[in-house]
Amino acid sequence: MPEPTADEPAVGVGVAEPAPLLAVDGLTVAYGAVTAIRDVSLTVAPGEIVATLGPNGAGKTTLLRTLAGALKPQRGTVTFDGRPLAGLSPEAVVRRGIALVPEGRHIFPNLTVQENLVVGGITRRDRDGLREDTERLLSRFPILAERASQLAGTLSGGEQQQLAITRALMSRPRMLLLDEPSLGLAPIVLDRIFELIAQLRAEGATVLLVEQNVHRALDLADRAYVLSVGAVVASGDTDRLVEGELERSYLGISGTDRSGP
Amino acid sequence: MSPSEFVQQLVNALSLGSIYALLALGLSMVYGVLGMLNFAYGELVTITGYTMLAMTYVGAPFLVVAIVGVIAAGLSSVLMELVAFRPLRNASFVSLLFTSFAVAQLIQGAFRQAVSVRSRGIPVPAFFDDAVQLGPVRISVLSIITASIGAISLIALTTFMRRSRSGLAMRAASQDFTTARLLGVRANRVISLAFLLSGILAGIAGVLWIARTTSVNPTTGFVPVVQAFIASVIGGLGNLRGAVIGGFFLGTLEVFLQATLPGSLLPYAQGASLLIVVAILYVRPQGLLGQRVQAL
C-alpha cells in the first residue's frame, strides 16, 4: 500500500487520519488554455462525508468529473483505496467503486425508471443481487416504485434527483460523488434529498459532495474544502469552518457581484 | 384502383418499405450512439452483393449465399469502425462525414478494380418470381418473403433493444453517452455493437434488395441507402421508431405514386415523393418523431 498523503496539502487539513479512501494530490485540470483547477489536494476517509464548497466557476464540478474519469488531469495523482486512479476511463473508474451523480441529474429521459436502474447496475453480473438491490432501493422510494415502468423524463425534478442517486447506488459504490444534488429543487424536496444523504451516511457510505447550499452542506458534512478560482483556499472540520475562513473566502466572494462565470 | 389492386400494391409497399426501414434503422442507430452519419453505409449493401456473388460461384445454395452475405456485412461494418472511425473518435462531425465518404470511395474503387464496373448477375430461386392467388388478389412471392423477413428482423431487433442489457446500454448511450459511461457502459463495446447491428441490418436489406435486382455492381448500395437517409431524416435522425416509420412511409409513397401516376408523369414519381418529404420537413424540421438536438 503506497502512502496516500505524503506531501503536505496546499492548505493543511491538519488532522491526522487513518489511510484515506480517496487521496487527491496536486491535481491540475485545464480546458484548453483555461485552467479550471490548480494544484488541488484533498483526502476523504472511509465513512466520511466531505463537502466541496465555493462559488460558481470555482472548479468543483471539474474536480468531481475528473475523479470520475470524465476529464483527464494535466498533473497530479488520484489514489483510491491505495491504487492510482487518474487517467482511467469513466467506465473503469465506476468498476473501481466510485459512482458520480452528475450535476443536472442526467437521468435517461426515454428509459423507464426501472431501466435507468438496470443501466446503473450494468457493471454487475449477479442477477440475484441486482434484483434484491432494485427492490430494496425502490422500497425506500415509494414514488420511484410507483413509477417504475414510467419514462424517467416524466418525473418531477426531485424525483429525478432521487432516481439519479438511486441509479448510482445500483453499482454498489464504495464512494459516491454527488454534484449539486439540490440544484433547482423546491425546499421541501431538498429536505428529502438531504435526508437521503444522511441515511446513506448512517449506512456507512463515503461521500464527496459539491453543494451550492452552504448551510445544508455544512450541517451534513464532517469536513469541507473551499475552492475559489480553481484552488483550495480553506479546509477543515465543518464546525470550525463556519466560524473561520469560510465566511471570508467563500461568503466574501459570493457576496460581491464578481462571482464569476 | 380496384380493392384487389390496392391490396397487391400494399404488399409491395410493405416489401419496399421494410428494406428502407431496415437501412434507415441501421443509419439511425449509429447516428444515435456516435452522432455520425455513415456515408459508407451503402457500401455494406454492395459488400453483401459481392459476397453473394462469390458464394454463388462456389455453388452454395441460396439460403447459405444469403446468410453469408449478411454475416459479411456485419463484420465489414465492425471492421470499418475499427479501422476508419475509431482513430477519429473525438473528431468533428464534418471530419467523420468526410472520412466515411472516403471509405465509400475506397470500397467502390476496390470492387471496380477487383471485379468490374459492370453489373454481375446473381441468380435467385425461380419461385421468387411466382405469385400466389388469394381470391381476387395476386401477390408476388418475393414481396411476401421480403415483407416477412423485414417484419421478423424488426421484431427481433426491438426485442433485443428492449430486453437485453446490451440493448439497454445502447439506448442509454444514445440518449446520453457520457452519463452511460459514468455508469459503466463501455464506450468501445457499445459502439462496436451499434456497428455490428447496423451492418447486419444492411446485410439483410442487401439480400432483399439483391433478390429484387438480381445483380450487383460497385454502386449497388447507393440507391437504397439514399432512400434510407431520407427515411431516417423523415422519422427524425437517431430515433429508431422514427426510422422505421420513415422507411415504410417512403416505400409506400414510392409504390403508390408509381401505381397511380399516369404514364406520362411516371418519370416524376421520384421527384414527387421528394417534394412531399420536403413539405414534411418544412413543417417538422426535426422529423416526425425527432427531438430537438440536445445540448451536450
Outline the structure in words:
The complex is a heterodimer of chains A (261) and B (296). In chain A, strands 6-7-8-3-9-10 form a six-stranded mixed β-sheet, sandwiched between helices. Chain A has a four-stranded antiparallel β-sheet with strand order 2-1-4-5, covered by helices on one side. The longest helix of chain A has 16 residues. Chain A is built from ten helices and ten strands. Chain A has a domain of 167 residues: Rossmann fold, CATH 3.40.50.300. Chain A is 36% helix and 23% strand. Chain B has 296 residues and is mainly alpha-helical. Chain B has a single domain, classed as Orthogonal Bundle (ABC transporter involved in vitamin B12 uptake, BtuC). A two-stranded antiparallel ribbon of chain B has the order 1-4. In chain B, helix 2 runs antiparallel to helix 9 and helix 5 packs antiparallel against helix 8. The longest helix of chain B is centred in the N-terminal third of the chain and has 32 residues. The C terminus of chain B is likely disordered. At the A-B interface, helix 2 and helix 3 of A face helix 6 and helix 7 of B.
How can the largest sheet of chain A be summarized?
A: 6 strands, mixed
Terminal Cα span of chain A: 40 Å
Q: What string gives the helices and strands of chain A in order?
A: EEEHEEHEHHHHEHEHEEHH
- Measure the end-to-end span of chain B: 50 Å
Count all strands of chain A and give the number: 10
How many strands appear in the DSSP assignment of chain B?
4
Helix content class of chain B: over 70%
Indicate the radius of gyration of chain B in whole angstroms.
Answer: 19 Å
| Largest Cβ-defined interface | A-B, 25 and 17 residues
Tell me the fraction of residues in β-strands of chain B, as a range. Answer: under 5%
Query: Could you say how many structural domains of chain B there are in total?
Result: 1
Proportion of beta-strand residues of chain A? 15-25%
H/E element order of chain B: HHHHEEEHHHHEHHH
Specify Rg of chain A, calculated over alpha carbons: 18 Å
Based on secondary structure, the structural category of chain B is: mainly alpha
> What level of helicity do the residues of chain A show?
25-40%
